[in-house]
Write a structure and sequence with these properties.
By secondary structure, this protein is mostly beta strands. The mean pLDDT is 76. 0% of the residues lie in helices and 29% in strands.
Length: 110
């Protein structure tokens, strides 16, 4: 279930795959992200209902404890690395290829 926590093998697998996969999903006892939600919008409309843009905008939200047993502690005042991946759909509605990990840094509190 996404968003979720994953065990990411250093260097990928023997076949070179290092993208997200449910086979790397952390066990249910390690899934500590709460109230996870993902939404996607394919178009933005102006106040008259006219399409302003047609790119897909995806939003993800979740809650997480900053301190957990056997995990790296998160300092809410410092940048925190957030890994994510997006599996694109091809024209037939199938997942297209091996999605790459992307990353960003987030500050939880200023």
């Amino acid at each position: 279930v996404n968003p979720g926590k994953y065990d990411i093998p250093a260097g990928g697998t023997e076949k070179g795959f290092s993208g997200p996969s449910l086979s790397f999903s952390s066990g249910i006892d390690k899934q500590t992200l709460m109230d996870g939600y993902v939404s996607a919008n394919d178009a933005y409309l102006d106040t008259n209902g006219t399409i302003v843009s047609s790119f897909t905008n995806t939003k993800m939200s979740f809650a997480k404890n900053l301190r957990e047993p056997d995990e790296i502690e998160i300092d809410p005042y410092e940048p925190t690395l957030l890994l994510y991946a997006v599996a694109l759909l091809d024209r037939g509605g199938e997942y297209d290829g091996n999605p790459e990990w992307n990353y960003t840094h987030v500050n939880l509190l200023n």
